[in-house]
Specification:
Layout (H helix, E strand, L loop, with lengths): L2 H21 L25 H12 L2 E6 L2 E6 L2 H8 L13 H5 L14 H14 L2 H6 L1 H18 L5 E2 H18 L8 H17 L5 H4 L1 H5 L4 H27 L11 H11 L6 H32 L1 H14 L15 H13 L9 E2 L4 E3 L2 E3 L4 E4 L1 H5 L44 H15 E4 L23 E6 L3 H7 L1
Parallel strand pairs: 2-7
Antiparallel strand pairs: 1-2, 3-9, 4-7, 5-6, 8-9
Amino acid sequence: MDPLFITIAVVIATLIFVTKNYLSRKNLPPTIFPTLPIIGHLKLLEQPLYRGLAKLSAKHGPILLLRFGSRPVLLLADPIATEECFTKNDIIFANRPRLIFGKILGDNYTNMAWSPYGEHWLNLRKLSSTEILSSHRINDFYSIRADEGRLMVQGIVSECSSSHVDLKSVFNDYTTNIMMMMISGKRFTGVDIELGKRFQEIVKETFLLGKSSNLGDHLPFLRWFGLTKDFEKRMVSCVAKRDSFFHDLIDQVREGKGVLIDKNITMIGVMLKLQEKDPQYYTDDLISAVLLNIIAAGIETSASTMEWALALMLNNPHVLKKAQNEIDNIVGTDRLVEESDLSKLPYLGCIMNETMRLYPTVPTLLPHENSEECEVKGYHIPKGTMLIVDQWAVHHDPKWWSDPESFKPERFEGPESITPKLKFMPFGFGNRMCPGSGLAPPMIGLALGLVIQCFDWERISDDLVDMTEGSGLIMHKHQPLLAKCTPRSMTQKLISQA
């Protein structure tokens, strides 16, 4: 390309940038100087993104207006400003930026996670909250979760004689079985074990593809020159595998093949009844996208939280013992923990909350975008600004938490433990709050309660468990959690009676 042409283009871009951002400047939030033409602040980003953004917030302030290429970005590491965005300005910020991930894996911005705020999104949200993940629907699967918990314990018992138990695999299988039963009435073990493994790989690949900010989203010329083609091909391939999997599963449920419960209460069954009424809207592709959106997050986030929680307890044995004593005192040793017990096990709830504080499964909330200009903390926020809330930064900020790097479940005891309100929001807040917030706590709590009640756990060596974080949209352990266990004296009796 002609060097003179490139020079002229850079000069013009610089003049436009200066004119737009300095000569017509309003009361914008603080920024970081210098803001470079074309790339903006992209050069400052470090991986993992949530830690890199936290460094910027710690150095330059908790409210920053950055530029990712040509895109304005409001970075918040402040729970009070976040509450203002998700209350007073909630509908304004209820949109998503049009990112490549949302275009390809979000079916051209039509699934619930990436659809813009409007009639279609409101319909999907209503469907999720009143049909698919309503409290009534969750209660329909109460016994299924109890069965899967018992089967999980049985599986661990069979592995206790070996040198270690792979808890990452245990928790993934537990959550996948529950979600597969809710989706289709089919377990992934037994005759359908390959079906479940195939599904787990699709979920894993989906979240790995969202592991970092794609430069093509902020520097469009990279796409024009085809420099993001390989990345986009991987996304397209993932969508093809996802749709093939779900279309096969939908057909099986239609025909009742291998369904272990009333198919009409499954997620697919509910969607198929809606499809009969409006086949043009509720296509198999829409069903596929909606279901992956809901259940992929349910599997990956819940299993990850369980793994982090037990890893933290292995590194803090006094917490594990205190939780075990609580269960023994409240539940006793004559039956297994049940979901109905969880409200009477406050310390177990504190462990879950403290785990999600230290290792939030979505450390930076999925990005929002404002549909019109607004004010946040007195600052003018231009229309079309991408909002990034660095939840990890807030959870680790000594301004909001005493000794924030330590694992202290007791910090969540008492009604005044979370002030201000949005310094802890593991499921998000407002219109775009996670639709699975009613399902995850009982599913996680039951699994943790059972493994604490039924086994004595210890690390595989004297070294502390490695707590290094892996890459991906979801925060998971870099190394799978391996531990040694011994069934407690009443365990075999309890699982044989259940």
